[in-house]
Design brief:
The structure is a homodimer.
Chain A (H helix, E strand, L loop, with lengths): L22 E6 L11 E6 L4 E6 L7 H9 L8 E9 L5 H19 L6 E8 L6 H5 L2 H6 L6 H7 L8 E9 L2 E10 L12 E6 L5 H14 L4 E2 L9 E6 L11 H20 L7 E9 L2 H13 L1 H8 L5 H10 L10 E4 L2 E5 L2 E2 L5 H7 L4 E7 L5 E8 L3 H8 L4
Parallel strand pairs in A: 4-5, 8-10, 9-16, 11-15
Antiparallel strand pairs in A: 1-2, 2-4, 3-10, 6-7, 7-8, 11-16, 12-13, 12-15, 13-14
Subunit structure (chains A, B): Heterotetramer of two alpha and two beta chains.
EC number (chains A, B): 2.3.1.35, 2.3.1.1
Catalytic activity (chains A, B): N(2)-acetyl-L-ornithine + L-glutamate = N-acetyl-L-glutamate + L-ornithine; L-glutamate + acetyl-CoA = N-acetyl-L-glutamate + CoA + H(+)
Chain lengths: 407, 407
């Protein structure tokens, strides 16, 4: 799918996704930009489906994002549809961008017999070029004709851009009323940072869930999953996460802790997969900060570490350069005291009391850095604030991908 | 000096620096970390020298920085000294780091017959390793014995770390009382970002300047020069700028506009040289933002553009990827309106009214990007706030330098 090799951090295989009753999928090659591959996915959701979503906070967000935001909270009775294309983000395309969204949502509404207010679209790819929406519209009848309950894996492939592997996750939850299933797909590998990333995420469940409660739940979980990952600190104009609860299982999951925990787990799984496909990534890195003056301070420190080019290049070089961690804590702007700071690489205590730990041996740090999954632990030593974020290293691969992506 | 080739953006040659009456310099190879090169510089400043300084705001700043900060504003009558070593930053070295600074400043004070409170030191290089200050102390008599008025260019070389060229600048100013001279040197190429950079800057003038007024002047000029450059958004624990006004010319420049302008010009020159030596840099890039809601907002947008890895890699690839500029404005957090934004690459109007400009041709943007010096102009279209910052591109060279710098 991608012209780049599969990420060394990719999972072994795409998971077997269950059928989600009430949700059907279809994909097609519309030639939006790419040749020889599918680039459009359509999802049809049964009447009664609750739809929740979170979106990029970029002030230059795309027409599709603005349109989705307007539609969240709408009437669930009539069902819904999600149309996604890759290859062109329809972002920063002025008035024409809004017109494309309007034409597409109207066409989908007509083909599927839905109100236009229940048709959500996303576009991902190059910014600033007009979306050839006529190529997509021309395929809508064909798409609608091939909708099937089993098409979610194909959908995961159709929405890829620079991704090197398709991303999917699934969970089952046993509730008192019966079993419900959750399945999700995601795309994203560059321009990944809160809030959120060039990241598209679509999650489907056959549980019934009150729409307003679902929206609160998704926002809460998003804050500790997708908004805690960063590949390059850059934030997309198009980030979108939509969750559709069809209710077709007949089981109401509203407020059920087991469901909420499973959804959290699934969203974290997908978020980690996005980091594992970070452009050029060879290391998957968890940054755990504790002992900060507040949770917000902990997050500021963690993101300062996760986004530091000097740390990310040291990770690429398998260099246990804890001095750069000290630097990143110092520059973050959040409260810190050099002499109370301690740093661990995995289980190896590296620095404490304002200096290298007496027990630390450089060989231990260097050996740990050879792992492909790394944990950097920082105790600020000031309070009880904590945060965990995830990132990857910065390699020659990132430069290669991004210095010639557009041309 | 560096193991990396001279930056393609370097000036043709090091400028001929004038003698600054009242200032003498010496350098020596003390073997702090590097072999076969000078790594320590000493400056002796005549009685009556005003010293002003600005320093990193890092919360994990080094012992030498803290010591210098304490000493700014001290009595000028007794003269002063500046001792700088490269190879080891003596940062995050706990109690031992302070003891090293104390021993070094005491030794210099003794050798030169100065109060310890007038001895300023800086250290640059690897973080977290004990400074072998005994190697420096052992050379102090030799250093003092070779102090000469002409040694400033050699000093510029002694303070280099990953720099690929020595950095110097000079200006002359005709004041009513006579001519005064300013000469400065700088080092820095990585970990460059406000406030400030792994950047050391030492400026000398034979003008007389009231010490408190000089401190205000340096702080003001620093805010629009060194604090407006960024190579990689990372901030050092050791950044130091010291300005010494010996007064030996007998000409008082306090408050003289011509002097202030010349100093501004010299500091901007040195700041630009630091960017031109940005690790791996092949493009020198000026980001001009105007039309923002405030100057602060303009700076936020400008720094968001200047620090975006996706923009910096596009510049490296000579890709006129203005969509990434839209992205960086959108993510910055400062006020913006997609449909009021306009973007220029040099004289080429690229985008306006929320879309690509009708007159824009991709060939024009691509041709412009082939220049080694670039200007990205953004008009936010909201107000009259403006800011200009300088940065470089992000290349394979940066990765190569930083993935193996320490080992």
């Amino acid at each position: 799918m991608s012209k780049y090799p599969r990420s060394p951090l990719a999972p072994d295989e795409f998971p077997a996704l269950p059928v989600i009753a009430g949700a059907e999928f279809a994909t097609i090659a519309a030639g939006v930009r790419y040749a020889g591959r599918t680039d459009v996915m359509l999802a049809r959701l049964a009447p009664g489906t609750s739809v929740a979503g979170v979106f990029t906070t970029s002030k230059t967000r795309s027409a599709a994002v603005l349109d989705c935001q307007d539609k969240i909270g709408g009437d669930a009775d009539s069902g819904a549809a999600i149309l996604v294309n890759s290859g062109n983000s329809n972002a920063f395309t002025g008035r024409a961008g809004f017109e494309s969204v309007s034409r597409l949502t109207a066409s989908v509404a007509e083909v599927l017999g839905l109100p236009q207010t229940r048709v959500f679209t996303s576009s991902t790819g190059v910014i600033g070029e007009p979306l050839p929406d006529d190529r997509i519209s021309a395929k809508l009848s064909d798409l609608a004709g091939t909708l099937s309950e089993g098409g979610l894996e194909d959908a995961a492939k159709a929405i890829m851009t620079t991704d090197t592997f398709a991303k999917g996750a699934t969970r089952e939850v046993d509730l008192p009323g019966g079993k419900v299933r959750i399945a999700g797909i995601a795309k994203g590998s560059g321009m990944i940072a809160p809030d959120m990333a060039t990241m598209l995420v679509y999650i489907f469940t056959d549980a019934r869930y009150d729409q307003a409660a679902l929206q609160r739940l998704v926002s809460t979980i998003n804050a500790r999953t997708f908004n805690c990952i960063t590949v390059d600190s850059d934030t997309s104009t198009s980030d979108t996460l939509l969750l559709a609860a069809t209710g077709a299982s007949g089981v109401d999951a509203t407020g059920a802790e087991a469901f909420d925990a499973a959804l959290n787990d699934l969203m974290l799984d997908l978020a980690h997969q996005v980091v594992r496909d970070g452009e050029g990534a060879t290391k998957f890195v968890e940054i755990r900060v504790e002992g900060a003056a507040s949770d917000a301070d902990a997050r500021t420190h963690a993101m300062s570490i996760a986004n530091s080019p000097l740390i990310k290049t040291a990770l690429a070089g398998e260099d246990p350069n804890w001095g750069r961690v000290v630097m990143a804590v110092g520059k973050s702007g959040a409260a810190a005291d050099r002499d109370k700071l301690s740093i661990r690489f995995g289980g190896v205590l590296v620095a404490e009391n304002g200096w290298v730990a007496p027990s630390y041996r450089e060989e231990d740090g260097a050996a740990y850095m050879k792992n492909s999954d790394l944990v950097i632990g920082v105790d600020i030593g000031l309070g009880s604030g904590s945060a965990t974020v995830w990132t990857c290293d910065l390699t020659h691969g990132y430069i290669s991908i991004n210095a010639d992506y557009r041309s």
